[in-house]
Design a protein that fits this description.
5 domains, alpha/beta, GMP Synthetase, Chain A, domain 3, 50% helix, 5-stranded parallel sheet, Hypothetical protein af1432, single chain, 6-stranded antiparallel sheet, 30 helices
Length: 656
């Protein structure tokens, strides 16, 4: 056992981060198992990860980055390219931020006091400034494997603390040691930002909760691919369900977000997502059998009682995960105990079934005009209906959590895409399904049509922001479709041909008709979708500059739904422009963005960086983003990321 390990334990003991018993347990654990002393401290339960990193950050006089933040990080390729993978692996060093204005690179390592690491990083990267933060060694190695080597399961055996913490909370609740108000607070309240970390909002979500430390089954090891394949298959199977096309995929995405928000292990999340993909298979008929519909109409209930286990019987030759079976089987139970098939009540209903019921109903209300209210409802309208049924049909704690999930996600999508509507017209159902999934996952509202005449009908019902069309269509081709757009008042909608017709004459004709682009199949779908994003972003900029269209793409909301650090991160990463106005009681302020950079800020008499730091203190109130307003003069040169780091550090110190 090295002296460094003993010294680390001694310093943590002197700082009262661990006690004497914990010191002995950690050293014994390391002696028996080897590895890092930090992992031994956590494995022996001498200290939790958060407390350990907090203590180390204090010793090293820096900030820390938790395993969760690293796992959820969205690290640009340009940042990763600064440090070669071999150097990162050799020295357990990982880059997280780069500030080109200051030529400064921020990295995480196990010992920020090691001057050798700083020297190696500076010499290797050629940057002027190197900032080292502390992180758990196992988490750093997992980040290197994930981001440099593409191992999506790299974090699978690292972070068990959050899972154990959630399970302990649920166990306590089941023993009725917490009342309902306490459990709602425990489920919905995020960790306090007062801890000395890099920032609670620093990195975007990109991975689900992790697996417990054990050998993964073949199904779990390939669950990402399995879910992806199933989503495409379900989109094909549901291509003739009218407005319910893609319903199961949409439900599965909502379920996935809920499972991650709750903190379920990756294996459990996979099982519940699988239930969402399978829950409607074989239930075809005049009624869409959601938990709400079944609870309110006897005809729906009678039909559901006959068909509730049809998906399970269809797949009985397979060994489905038990959590999948339980979620599908019990999605029609009711929180008050009046559901079926067993009349389970409250927490006796499997968690997956409670989550699935919520997501299924919400997707039905917001995507299907044939729902009981005979119109596609907005977010707040749908949530209000669900809210009325809580404690009767739905778990009230999960309803509150669900509200936060969909409200925050919807705001993010609106900010990034302005909720742009895209119509995909292609006779190939597989192509429609793939494009639908790719665009939907990027925040666009996508509709699909397999025939040109059906596309015109859909266009006549309301405007779209972009049309993607094949040339080979029935009963008339894509060229004629472009010519007929004026008949439904949509002549100005940009159209992109994505087609197998590659003759030079066809390409020329497409552009002569005014197509935005003419792309030949096959083309890499990710590159094609990136082009679509570019077209829509450019059109937003054009429309924002048009007189009388100042509110185009505008977004407003509550700071309770989305905090200011979150807003800044989303606008900066999305390279959006505009004026962000904030109001909280008597306080108000403005922040100007130009392609993701913060150009100016104002709060009362304060301007520039000091105004921005003051606005970060706002935790309640409202915001509005107007993309048509541009800053005239740049007053702030620091990047948005660095401003957030410094601002949150000040807020942190002010709360001490």
């Amino acid at each position: 056992m090295g002296q460094d390990a003993k010294q680390t334990v001694r310093r943590l003991f002197e700082a009262k981060v661990i006690d004497e018993r914990g010191s002995r347990a950690a050293l014994q654990c390391m002696k028996e198992r080897g590895g890092d002393i930090e992992e031994a401290l956590i494995e022996s339960r001498a200290v939790g990860e958060e407390a350990l990193l907090k203590g180390l950050a204090k010793l090293y006089r820096t900030r820390f980055v938790s395993t969760e933040k690293l796992r959820r990080a969205d690290i640009p390729r340009g940042v990763l390219d600064k440090l070669p993978a071999k150097i990162a692996t050799k020295y357990t060093l990982f880059p997280i931020l780069f500030d080109p204005a200051q030529n400064a690179l921020s990295l995480v390592c196990r010992d920020p006091s090691d001057l050798t690491l700083e020297q190696i990083a500076r010499q290797t990267t050629g940057v002027r400034h190197v900032r080292l933060f502390v992180a758990r060694p196992a988490a750093i190695r997992a980040a290197i494997s994930k981001f440099y080597k593409g191992d999506i399961h790299a974090f699978a055996n690292v972070d068990k603390a959050g899972i154990a913490e959630y399970q302990q909370m649920m166990d306590v609740y089941e023993r009725q040691l917490l009342d309902e108000d306490q459990i709602v607070t425990s489920l919905t309240k995020e960790r306090s930002p007062s801890e000395r970390m890099i920032t609670p909002r620093e990195m975007e979500e990109s991975a689900a909760r992790t697996l417990p430390k054990r050998a993964a089954s073949p199904m779990e090891a390939t669950h990402g691919m399995t879910v992806g394949i199933l989503r495409v298959m379900l989109s094909l199977l549901e291509s003739d369900r009218g407005e319910l096309t893609g319903h199961s995929v949409q439900t599965s995405q909502l379920v996935h977000k809920m499972c991650r928000r709750i903190g379920l292990a990756e294996s459990e999340t996979f099982s519940v997502v699988l239930s969402a993909l399978l829950h409607d298979i074989g239930k075809g008929g005049p009624y869409h059998l959601t938990a709400l519909n079944v609870a309110e109409w006897e005809g729906h209930r009678s039909s559901a009682e006959k068909k509730y286990d049809t998906p399970l019987r269809l797949f009985e030759s397979l060994t489905l995960p038990e959590a999948t079976v339980q979620a599908v089987r019990h999605m029609y139970e009711r929180f008050d105990g009046s559901g079926f098939p067993l009349g389970l009540r409250g927490k006796d209903i499997p968690l997956g079934a409670r989550v699935l019921a919520l997501a299924d109903v919400y997707a039905d209300l917001t995507e299907n005009s044939r729902n009981p209210y005979r119109q596609v409802l907005g977010i707040e309208e749908a949530l209000a209906i669900i809210d009325k049924a809580k404690e009767v049909v739905f778990d009230p704690h999960l309803v509150e959590l669900f509200r936060g999930v969909v409200a925050g996600n919807a705001l993010k999508q609106k900010i990034l895409t302005g909720a742009k509507k895209v119509l995909v017209v292609d006779s190939d159902p597989e192509q429609c399904a793939v494009l639908d999934l790719q665009l939907t996952s990027r925040g666009f509202k996508t509709r699909t049509a397999r025939r040109a005449d059906r596309a015109l009908e859909m266009l006549s019902e309301g405007p779209f922001d972009l049309i993607i069309a094949e040339v080979e269509l029935e009963p008339f081709d894509g060229f004629e479709l472009k010519g007929r757009l004026s008949q439904v008042g949509q002549a100005g909608v940009p159209l992109v041909y994505y087609t197998s017709r590659a003759d030079a004459q066809d390409v020329e004709r497409g552009f002569e008709l005014g197509a935005k682009d003419y792309i030949i199949k096959p083309s890499r779908i990710d590159i094609f979708v990136a082009k679509i994003q570019g077209y829509l972003a450019a059109r937003s900029d054009e429309r924002a500059s048009e007189p009388g269209d100042a509110a185009a793409g505008g977004v407003s909301g509550s700071l309770k739904e989305m905090s200011l650090p979150d807003l800044v991160q989303i606008i900066a990463h999305g390279r959006k422009s505009g004026l962000l106005r904030l109001k909280s009681g008597d306080a108000s302020g403005e922040i100007y963005f130009v392609k993701g950079d913060i150009y100016a800020a104002k709060e009362g008499e304060k301007t520039g960086e000091e105004a921005f730091f003051e606005l970060l203190k706002l935790t309640d109130g409202s915001f509005s983003l107007n993309p048509s307003v541009r800053a005239q003069v740049r007053e702030i040169e620091v990047t948005a990321e660095m401003l957030l780091l410094e601002g949150l550090r000040r807020v942190d110190e002010g709360n001490r």
